[in-house]
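Whiteboard transcription, Tuesday session. T.W. wrote the structure tokens on the left side:
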């Protein structure tokens, strides 16, 4: 099967957009990711999927913590920054939740401790136990990604 065909087919699944963040040696790092899902309510677990070639992989292995930040529709620029889509450097200030860096103004933030890792294909799955969570009390829409483009909800 052709790689492009597989990517195009998977792109037909609309997803929210997150920034996964961690801290190593006192420096916060983030990457845009849509490979995220909740796993369990009891205990409260989530999973993220990080490519073997991503620099974030070793950072999460070293820190053993990460946050998942669910972006709002007005945070598309942050998504682009952490996806490496903007050429000029922009400084991002992180807040903290449960001792882990988080994105200010995200619709929801979950601070997690890694409980398990699974290497599957060219990705590593990190299972994270949610140690603290925050939800933005607003009516903002989520940032959506579908078929290779950012999208928005319509009524």
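and on the right, the sequence the group agreed on:
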């Amino acid at each position: 099967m052709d790689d492009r065909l597989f990517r195009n087919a998977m792109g037909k699944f609309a997803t929210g957009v997150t920034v996964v963040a961690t801290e190593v040696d006192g420096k916060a790092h983030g990457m845009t990711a849509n490979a995220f899902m909740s796993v369990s309510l009891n205990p409260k677990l989530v999973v993220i999927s990080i490519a073997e070639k991503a620099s974030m992989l070793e950072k999460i292995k070293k820190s053993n913590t990460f946050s998942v930040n669910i972006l709002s529709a007005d945070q598309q620029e942050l998504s682009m920054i952490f996806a490496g889509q903007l050429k000029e450097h922009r400084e991002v200030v992180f807040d903290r939740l449960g001792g882990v860096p988080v994105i200010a103004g995200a619709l929801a933030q979950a601070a997690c401790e890694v409980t398990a890792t699974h290497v599957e294909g060219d990705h590593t799955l990190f299972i994270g136990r949610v140690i603290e969570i925050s939800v933005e009390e607003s009516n903002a829409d989520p940032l959506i990604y579908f078929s290779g483009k950012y999208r928005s909800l319509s009524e």
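Someone added at the bottom: The chain has a mean pLDDT of 94.
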